[in-house]
Design goal:
Blueprint (H helix, E strand, L loop, with lengths): L10 H9 L1 H9 L5 H21 L4 H16 L8 H12 L4
Helix pairs in contact: 1-4, 2-4
Length: about 100
């Protein structure tokens, strides 16, 4: 899956979510009804999934963002929107057995 491209448009969002304690707390602890924010968070989630699958690694800031988004989704009872690319990536890595 080395052909997974980096989505540079979400890099600043990932950076700021991870570094902004107030915004991170907002996402972790409050309910959100802003559709635009949800669409951006879906892009971030998808990018971090692909980044992890491509590199098999996330830096500390990216791991914090994953935690923040996970809490956000739990509190909002949010079901991830999926796409063919996400489904394919997940099924590929679930069936992958290192040799």
């Amino acid at each position: 899956m080395s052909d997974i491209e980096n989505d540079d448009t979400v890099d600043p969002i990932i950076y700021h979510i991870g570094k902004d304690d107030l915004f991170g707390s907002f996402l972790e602890k409050t309910l959100n009804n802003d559709a635009e924010l949800e669409m951006e968070l879906t892009k971030v989630r998808r990018e971090l999934l692909f980044r992890y699958c491509r590199d098999n690694n996330l830096d500390d800031n990216e791991i914090r963002v994953v935690k923040v988004i996970a809490c956000h989704c739990f509190h909002n009872e949010y079901v991830f929107a999926s796409s063919f690319r996400v489904d394919f990536t997940m099924s590929y890595y679930r069936s992958y057995q290192p040799t």
